[in-house]
């Protein structure tokens, strides 16, 4: 087996300068045998000769030699030629150099002239932003408190609705309704009693009776009822609910009829009030079997069209679902359990709501 490396297209791992030189022709190999020459100058000489003859390409042998020595040989990179379009651009710039300089000067002058106003505007905006930021920072706790306040109001509305007093909600401001929001934290077994007691205190106060007097006394239709309504309030305040409730039911029925008269829904004949639609049908048919009945609480509630009035819609539902079903039994002496504080408060509040509805219709 030969001691020389096999020709495989790249040098062997062992370095032999004579072998490298023999593969690079026509370099003067005598340069490789100069006794006083060091290794790297010999390689540089070989590289220079080879670059001149091979148009700046480096032989694989030289590259391998450089890598073995841990150094990168210097390479000659030809200078780039300017593209034609670049020369054209440079020519245009030279021709219009004066005009471009004028524009540049104008831009610089404008920038200098705007520096002071921009700085002033910046200072003004900063000065304006400081109090605004302070205001917004101070507003944050206010908004949080307001959100908590409205949560209590909504909780109060829910408590009133569940306790069957929601029909009178529009009669109170949100500060009063909010007080019932705290009731939601009370044990639900005693919650209805707490609500009733609070509204009982409200409906027996002098403030309440004065408001009721203003509503009733301010209506031409309702004014004549004040004497009876005042007596009802006195019985209610004295906790004489057995006396207050029947009288209140009678007045509620009468106020509903007053509402229907104002809306031309009833007509009087022979001293009795009939639904206008039923009376007209009877008069046209002259059929005695179809003679209408006088208006009482049930047809009054059904035909008064209370749903047309936002403040009376909830009252209409309570009237239809609660009062109508109990009215006859109470007034005919069959229901003997009506004399309770809650029912007395409910009937008195319904009377107040209806009185406000009549007064509002009159003011239109």
Order of helices and strands: HHHHHHHHHHEEHHHH
What proportion of the residues is helical, as a percent range? Answer: 55-70%
Q: How are the strands of the biggest sheet laid out side by side? A: 1-2
**Main sheet?**
2 strands, antiparallel
The number of domains = 3
Describe the protein in words.
This protein is an all-alpha fold and 364 residues long. It folds into 3 domains: 17-69, no CATH class; 89-197, no CATH class; 204-362, no CATH class. It has 14 helices and 2 strands, in the order ααααααααααββαααα. The chain has a two-stranded antiparallel sheet. α5 (97-162) packs across α6, α10 (241-262) crosses α12 (297-303) and α12 packs antiparallel against α13 (310-331). The N and C termini lie far apart (127 Å).
How would you summarize what this structure contains?
The chain is mostly helical and 364 residues long. Helix content is 65%, strand content 2%.
Give the tags.
single chain, 364 residues, mainly alpha, two-stranded antiparallel ribbon, 65% helix, 2% strand, disordered N terminus
């Amino acid at each position: 087996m030969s001691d020389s490396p096999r020709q495989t297209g790249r040098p062997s791992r062992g370095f032999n300068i004579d072998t490298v030189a023999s593969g690079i022709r026509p370099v003067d190999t005598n340069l490789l045998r100069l006794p006083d020459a060091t290794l790297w100058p010999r390689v540089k000489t070989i590289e220079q000769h080879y670059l001149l003859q091979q148009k700046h390409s480096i032989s694989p042998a030289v590259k391998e030699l450089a890598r073995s020595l841990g150094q990168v040989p210097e390479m000659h990179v030809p200078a780039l030629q300017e593209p034609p379009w670049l020369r054209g651009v440079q020519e245009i710039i030279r021709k219009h150099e004066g005009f471009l300089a004028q524009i540049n000067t104008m831009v610089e002058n404008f920038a200098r002239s705007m520096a002071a106003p921009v700085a002033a505007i910046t200072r003004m905006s900063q000065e304006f932003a400081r109090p605004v930021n302070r205001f917004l920072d101070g507003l944050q706790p206010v908004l949080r408190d307001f959100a908590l306040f409205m949560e209590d109001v909504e909780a109060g509305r829910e408590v009133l609705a569940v306790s069957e007093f929601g029909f009178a909600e529009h009669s109170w401001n949100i500060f009063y309704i909010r007080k019932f929001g705290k009731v939601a934290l009370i044990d639900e077994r005693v919650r209805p009693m707490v609500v009733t007691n609070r509204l009982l205190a409200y409906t027996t106060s002098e403030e309440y009776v004065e408001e009721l007097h203003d509503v009733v006394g301010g209506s031409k239709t309702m004014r004549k009822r004040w004497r009876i309504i005042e007596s009802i309030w006195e019985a209610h305040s004295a906790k004489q609910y057995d006396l207050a409730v029947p009288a209140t039911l009678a007045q509620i029925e009468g106020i509903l009829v007053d509402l229907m008269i104002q809306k031309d829904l009833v007509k009087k004949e022979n001293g009795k009030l009939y639904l206008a639609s039923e009376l007209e049908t009877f008069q046209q048919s002259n059929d005695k079997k179809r003679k209408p009945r006088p208006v009482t609480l049930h047809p009054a509630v059904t035909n008064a069209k209370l749903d047309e009035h936002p403040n009376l819609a909830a009252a209409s539902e309570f009237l239809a679902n609660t009062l109508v079903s109990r009215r006859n039994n109470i007034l005919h002496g069959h229901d003997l359990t009506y004399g309770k504080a809650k029912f007395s408060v409910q009937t008195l509040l319904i009377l107040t709501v209806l009185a406000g509805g009549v007064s509002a219709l009159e003011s239109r």
